[in-house]
Amino acid sequence: MTNYDAVIREFADELTLAAKRELGAQRIGKNGRYGVATRDLQKSLTYSIGGGKLKFGSPLPYAAFIHWGVNGTERNRNAPYSYRFPNPSRKHVEAIKQWMEDKPVRLRDSGGRFTSQTPAAIGSAAYVIARSVKRKGLAGVKYWTLAYDAIWPKYSRKIAEAKAADFFQELSADIGGITIKPK
After folding, report:
1. What letter does residue 38 receive in the DSSP assignment?
2. Which residues of the chain have pLDDT under 50?
3. Whole-angstrom Cα distance, residue 82 to residue 40?
4. 57-92, pLDDT tens digit by residue?
5. Is 59 found in the same domain as 77?
6. Final residue before a domain boundary, out of 102, 118, 138
7. N or C: which end of the chain has fewer CB within 10 A?
8. Do 81 and 68 form a contact (C-beta atoms < 8 A)?
9. Looking at the 3D structure of the chain, how many domains does it have?
């Protein structure tokens, strides 16, 4: 393994860990654990090195939506994705119900007191939450971008020095049958 490969692997490990920290540390309003219900996305973050390229990502289909956000029908979040219709589908409501179970979310009445968690009340709350999400959209949690901005200044010089060291290790001159290499 060359110096450059070792530093790139170290950089990728650090960047992935920083992205996981960013994803778990996002705070929006009073919600101290925004986006973290099951930690599946956080656990799935990975990287691959091959063909001269370093790729970061997640195999989960919703990772891009969490990173970039989603425009609502009534609010633009400058995201590449948008909801088309203001009312949620049954599938969307079921996903919100699952999120409410994983989080866990407790229902309150109009006076602010906790109320019973009946299936009808949970279904009604899930529908209202899903409709609000579709109208307002989702704020993006730019976990890869924030991690890159934090880690790159630390590694930019290390990467350049490792690449230069590898170049000088392979540099040689053949003069009259004598090979000269730098020290």
Report:
1. S
2. none
3. 23
4. 999 999 999 899 999 999 999 999 999 999 999 999
5. no
6. 138
7. C
8. yes
9. 2
